Amino acid sequence: MYQYEYPHPAVTTDIVIFTVRDKQLKLLLIMRGGEPFKGKWALPGGFIELDEDLETGARRELAEETGVSGVYLEQLYTYGAVDRDPRERVITVAYSALIPSDKIVLQAATDAEAVGWFSMDESPTLAFDHKKIVDMAHQRLVAKLDYSTIAFKFMPEEFTLSELQDVYEIILREEMDRRNFRKWMLALDQIKETGGERREGAHRPAKLYSVINPDIVEIIK
Amino acid sequence: MYQYEYPHPAVTTDIVIFTVRDKQLKLLLIMRGGEPFKGKWALPGGFIELDEDLETGARRELAEETGVSGVYLEQLYTYGAVDRDPRERVITVAYSALIPSDKIVLQAATDAEAVGWFSMDESPTLAFDHKKIVDMAHQRLVAKLDYSTIAFKFMPEEFTLSELQDVYEIILREEMDRRNFRKWMLALDQIKETGGERREGAHRPAKLYSVINPDIVEIIK
DNA sequence: ACAAGATAGTGTAAGATTTACACTAAGTCA
DNA sequence: TGACTTAGTGTAAATCTTACACTATCTTGT
């Protein structure tokens, strides 16, 4: 038992995990194994420990529930409506994670019943206020494509310009002119040719590129 | 005494309050009346009640400590480093408030020893990690001037184009061309002439404008 | 009453950026 | 070797951004 002179809320982290695969923007959800909302799909997350930072806690939950680690994570928003959890007052610090499709290796989850990737178009109804969180994360992602290099976080180490353009088109839901896209992307000076090419299918091979500063999300223009 | 099966952190809100006055961007600070950091300047804020939403709590603290109410408030970021408060684990949800200079009427503060406006150039050393919070709020404010109509939140109901331009120049710390500024601002279609004019000084009177949608911060491209 | 001084208010041309658009290159496979 | 598929490339028009200087209207002092 833990005692405090004044009432304290519980604090959790929830993580909205996106990837791009099969020409779709996908979302990682877990099925809840316990009450409340048992059997409902929800965002991975859980209670913060008192001796870990918020982002550390988010990464721990991410690893425990999904086996995903070492990915890009940014704080999204903090949700604290009084009645958002039926058990007690719970404030959640939501994070957004982007992972390259080649990093997807889901472990057997420990806390959760099941883990699954859902297309944004056909995601199930979610527990708590998680739909609201997902909507905000999605909105922010779309906005950030325009003014930052965040799209690189979906790419594997080496990728072709066509693959990169696919990511933009899938998330923004609009076709882009191939020549203009390439001109724009190369002018940003954020990717470089690796020298390699990808031969895949009955056509001209594509040059491979890699990100120049993989650890930084640059603000562009 | 309040008891929990698992340890809970304390949760506070802190508010970075900006206004523009005397050709400077100013920050509202309170002097702490109790430990820790007694006698140090800090952001207004305090513990969240279990029966109030986060923003409600922020507004309550704002009113209690500074007498300011009914202003623009947006969530900034949540800070939760393990050691940010020497007493116990405290997670703070930081908000940013912008207030028009004509709304500044500081009450005698209840919780605080003293309340004061500080120019961003000469603000004192702050308690806790509040400098970090202020820096982030400042950065965000500068960024938002470029892609939103947030600057209107500093303006009184009626204002002249020169006054509005002053706000931009003060916050961005750069001079802007008068003609281009007016062309740009009027093309945004976010303000309208009220019909009135302001005669003030030995020169041509300026037309007064007001914001068309005062409740919405528009994203402008 | 009129000259001096102050800020308000206005247009245009050059430069930079963005957009629209179509053909050639280099592979595989039948 | 011809058909098919995706990779790769340049240019001109349109739009947006920037630089720049003079007139308008008021107050105040003589």
Description:
Two copies of one chain form a homodimer. With 221 residues, chain A is an alpha+beta fold. Chain A folds into two domains: 10-145, Nucleoside Triphosphate Pyrophosphohydrolase (Alpha-Beta Complex), CATH 3.90.79.10; 150-211, Arc Repressor Mutant, subunit A (Orthogonal Bundle). Helix content of chain A is 24%, strand content 29%. Chain A has four helices and ten strands; from the N terminus they run E-E-E-E-E-H-E-E-E-H-H-H-E-E. Chain A has helices spanning 54-66, 130-147, 161-172, 178-188, and strands spanning 2-4, 10-21, 24-31, 41-42, 45-47, 72-79, 90-98, 114-119, 191-198, 206-211. In chain A, strands 2, 3, 4, 5, 6, 7 and 8 form a seven-stranded mixed beta sheet that branches. The radius of gyration of chain A is 19 Å and the shape is elongated. Chain A starts with a strand and ends in a 10-residue tail after the last strand. The mean pLDDT of chain A is 94. Chains A and B meet through strand 1 and strand 6 of A and strand 1 and strand 6 of B. Strand 1 of chain A pairs antiparallel with strand 1 of chain B, so a sheet runs across the interface. Chain A binds a DNA duplex (30 and 30 nucleotides) through helix 4.
Biggest contact:
A-B, 29 and 29 residues
Shape of chain A: elongated
Q: Calculate the terminal CA-CA distance of chain A, rounded to whole Å.
A: 52 Å
Do you know the CATH topology of the largest domain in chain A? Nucleoside Triphosphate Pyrophosphohydrolase
Oligomer: homodimer
- Report Rg of chain A: 19 Å
Helix count, DSSP H or I runs of 4 or more residues of chain A: 4
Low-pLDDT segments, ≥5 res of chain A? none
Number of domain units of chain A: 2
* Structural class by sheet pairing and helices of chain A: alpha+beta
Q: How would you characterize the largest beta sheet of chain A?
A: 7 strands, mixed
Could you tell me the strand content of chain A as a percent range? Answer: 25-35%
Give a count of the beta strands of chain A, DSSP E runs of length 2 or more: 10
Fraction of residues in helix of chain A: 10-25%
Query: What's the CATH H-level superfamily name of the largest domain in chain A?
Result: Nucleoside Triphosphate Pyrophosphohydrolase
